[in-house]
Fold these 4 entries.
Entry 1:
Amino acid sequence: MRGRGVVLMANSILNAGELDKAVAALIDASRAVGHRGGYLECAQHVEEVFGQEFDTSYCSVSDQADAELARAEKAYDHLSLPVMDLVADALKHDDWCQLLKTILDPPETVELSDEEEPAGDNGGNDGDGAKHDDDDGGGDGYE
């Protein structure tokens, strides 16, 4: 745990789906605010040059962009990650190291290719001695 514990914990936090969603919402909202700000600044320069008011109602970003950014920032600031709750609970126990290992370094799973059969599958036999032929008419659900 000493050699890889910090890395595993960091990966668990950084790979959390909740964090991905919160960061994506922040990026989208900040882009919208930046786009709207640039559009309004450009409109202001046009007004100065031509001496008349420029219609900004055609901006593709609503005037609610700042409020949406504030909501996204608040959601990010108050984000709760389930993995952190598990880590905090594990640290309260005497065997915290083993608990952290099971949380942060679960057993590896191996994906089977199309040619491989799952373990224990011996050619279509489900263990009851009956082969499941597709055309046997036996009504075993494998027709």
Entry 2:
Amino acid sequence: MAMSLTQYKGIPTDDFTFINALKGCLVVGNLNFGRQIHGLIIQSEVAFSTAVMNSLMNMYFKNRGELYALKVFDMFLDKDIKSWNTVFSGLSQGDDARVIGRFFHKLMLTGLKPNCVTFSILFRFCGEALYLVSGLQFYCLALQFGIPDEMCHHLTYQYVL
């Protein structure tokens, strides 16, 4: 309602307007309002801002709209590691390690390098779901990607053990 009013009054909207409106949808857990904001984002100039798209995916994931979140992810081209981390975080709310594994494989094909946040999400998922073999595989990959050994030990101890 407030978003429509800003357009009606001619008040310009920007990335921060949409990000904060999506945060509001998260707080109240209103997927329908989030979908309306998604429509306004498509109509605006910020339709393909990475920060807005990440916020939109986050809102969908946290309001049980995983399919919508993945459609948003597939549609925008400027994916950065934060975008991938948003997807890993959202998918980690489920319990299917194969889906996360497929997305990790897709990440590797892009040439982007996973970071500490990526592995923190993956270790937490593996620990909570008791996928210890997958956790060990991600641990080895973290070391290969240059994540400091001390940090890997800390994350593994915190989430997997």
Entry 3:
Amino acid sequence: MEYSEQVVKLGLTLFEILSEALGLHPNHLKDMECAESILLLRHYHPPCLEPELTLGSSSHADPDFFTILLQDQMGGLQVLHEDQWVNVPPIPGALVIDMGDLPQLISDDKFKSIFHRALAQNAGLRISAHAFSEHHFSKKATQDSMAPLRSCFQKKTTPTPIYRETTINEYRTYFNSKGLDGNSSPPHFKL
């Protein structure tokens, strides 16, 4: 329980940092109700006898704001950097923060989502704990709109946003229909 409480506190701090990085008041994203829900999951990956024949999880970008990941010592996480897969070695006690698709959409590409994958391994069982910053899923929230923040595109030479407005429901429906196909969601919402 203490871990969950600390991860929620960290998540709220990350929303403040993201707001400030966009030149906004620290509570801006929290006031937009972006921090209403943090989903905690654990992943269990048993050892794979022939890891070269499979992939733990395919290349994808998370559909949320960010993911806070606690890896075990088995590793297996890779991120795509300059068109190359790079291992993210586990560091005891360290957390990995993975930027999702929603900051890319609302920041009009000032932030970019991170493509990542998990490799299957035969060395032993792998356990990881994930905290996803989900926009809350009440009936009202699914009709809430998400769009590039004006402050992110008004100062451009051509003050037009890259992405169109969408609802949380439309956004989620699109992500769920495409699955983990190696593509992020924001390009689907380009103007």
Entry 4:
Amino acid sequence: MRASNHIIGLVNFLTFLISIPILGGGIWLSSRANNTDCLKFLQWPLIVIGASIMVISLAGFAGACYRNTILMRFYLFVMFFVLVALLGFIIFAYAVTDKGSGRSVEPGLPGI
């Protein structure tokens, strides 16, 4: 049982370290002087994703290190919803980018 707790703790610590550049990237995008619409659109999802991954990994790390079942159940519950959301996003991205489902948009055409 100890080895599995150490492995879960190590994986969550590495995930925590990976979330730092994600969060930093979102903050860096928000501080840029030439904020275009694309940068404004990307900054808040990056900040939210980075912060949520950080909180989830800290809960898993603390739950594994201190053998706290409440934190481990929270970690399991939240990770389940993260994986379901990721699966939904993958299906959505595939449906949107599938060949034949998109159309070329050219300026000057009716309806644009």
